[in-house]
Task: structure prediction
Amino acid sequence: MGNTSHGAHEHHIIPLKTYLQVFAALIFLTFITVAVTWFDFGAFNAVVAFGIASVKAALVLAYFMHLKYDNMMNRVIIGTGVFFLLVLWFFSILDIVTRVSEQSTL
Result:
């Protein structure tokens, strides 16, 4: 069966300290998420929420899903998904910002 290369599937041992630092960052960002709910950013409420959620998702993807240490093709696939997610968010926010409020005639 022969010659199989194990070099492409190397396992990266991440120190416990790194996991704890990422966990602490996620907890801190969760507190930030709760804290920003006390402020009104107007039309940018969704932008702030999406921004914080994106940073948290990037940390989970990079460290807990090991994308930081994975091959470039997986990064391209995830990056493409993130790009289209940003396009979806852009059009959603554009829709919210450009809505015309209707006045009742009653």
Notes: The first helix runs from residue 16 to 36.
